[in-house]
Amino acid sequence: MKHIKFKLTIILSFIMLQPNGVLAKQKLKMVTYDGLAKYADRFEFLPSDDCRYFEMRSWGRILDKSSNALSQNDLVKLNLHSGPFNIVQFARVLSISKHIDNKFDVVYLSFGNWSWDTQHVFKELGIKSLTAVHFAEKANIESNVWKTPELPKKLQNLRDDCSEIIKKGDI
């Protein structure tokens, strides 16, 4: 009997050590893609607090630290596109990190809030990547490309998970 209890204890211990993701689906709070640039290259999709829309954001490297004159809330002229399809021409500076490296700064940009219906447009256009080319007058921001596999599906999952959180919070 001691031998059976010992085996059960070991099995239950392994079950308890399993990550939560094995036992239950973890809620998606953000969709992210890493870019092809070497540093500061993440693209993010985040739901709004009320789940009525999502926001697109990116991180970018400012190549010449000494000539960086950007400030929070500045508008940056750019071309965010996928193939021949232009998506956005301006982004707002959310923040600037100046202490990451001695040679460059990092800027965090918002491309604004978007209707969830945008996921259908992305699907119809076959969006598989996003490219940002910056034309900022106050800083030299590195261009970047993000491969975005299954973007419409991931946006739908983000929306579903966000809506589920709201439903549970309303109870």
Description:
The chain has an eight-stranded antiparallel sheet. It is α+β, with helices and mostly antiparallel strands. The protein is globular. The protein has one domain. The model is unreliable at 5-23 and 167-171 (pLDDT under 50). The chain is 28% helix and 35% strand. The chain is built from four helices and eight strands, in the order ααββββββαββα.
Strand content: 35-45%
Number of domains: 1
Radius of gyration: 21 Å
Largest sheet: 8 strands, antiparallel
SSE topology string: HHEEEEEEHEEH
Q: Write down how many β-strands occur, each being a DSSP E stretch of 2 or more residues.
A: 8
| Number of H- or I-type helical stretches | 4
Give the % helix.
25-40%
End-to-end Cα distance:
47 Å
- What strand order characterises the main sheet? 1-2-3-6-5-4-7-8
* Approximate shape: globular
The low-pLDDT segments are: 5-23, 167-171
Overall pLDDT = 85
List the helices and strands and how they pair.
Blueprint: H1 2-17, H2 20-23, E1 31-34, E2 42-47, E3 54-62, E4 75-82, E5 85-97, E6 105-114, H3 118-125, E7 129-134, E8 144-147, H4 151-170
Antiparallel strand pairs: 1-2, 2-3, 3-6, 4-5, 4-7, 5-6, 7-8
Helix pairs in contact: 3-4
List keywords for this structure.
171 residues; alpha+beta; disordered C terminus; single chain
Task: Give a short summary of the structure.
28% of the residues lie in helices and 35% in strands. By secondary structure, the chain is α+β, with helices and mostly antiparallel strands.
